[in-house]
Design a protein that fits this description.
Blueprint: H1 12-16, E1 22-25, E2 28-31, H2 41-45
Antiparallel strand pairs: 1-2
The structure holds iron/sulfur cluster (SF4) (2 copies).
């Protein structure tokens, strides 16, 4: 998930994602969990450490909760 309070919409994660899973929505990065392959690239890149791919936005995909 992306911490919307930290993201500055630099766009770096969008550019780095190999599967195009990230978009800037309303001025913040948003990961499409259906596309994300969990490579970790965005998380390592983000200058604001706004991304944690091990956490999922509850509102992003309620039917695919992590066990
Ligand atoms: S790299 Fe980080 S700060 Fe930049 S758009 Fe992505 S989540 Fe936001
Ligand atoms: S962890 Fe997911 S969203 Fe992030 S760069 Fe990799 S595939 Fe894209």
């Amino acid at each position: 998930m992306v911490d919307r309070t930290k993201c500055i919409a630099c766009g770096g994660c969008v550019a780095i994602c190999p599967v195009g899973a990230i978009k800037i929505v309303e001025g913040k990065a948003k990961i499409d969990p259906k596309k994300c392959v969990r490579c970790g690239g965005c998380m390592n890149f983000c200058p604001m450490t706004a991304i944690d791919i091990n956490k999922q936005d509850p509102d992003e995909n309620p039917n695919r909760k992590k066990k």
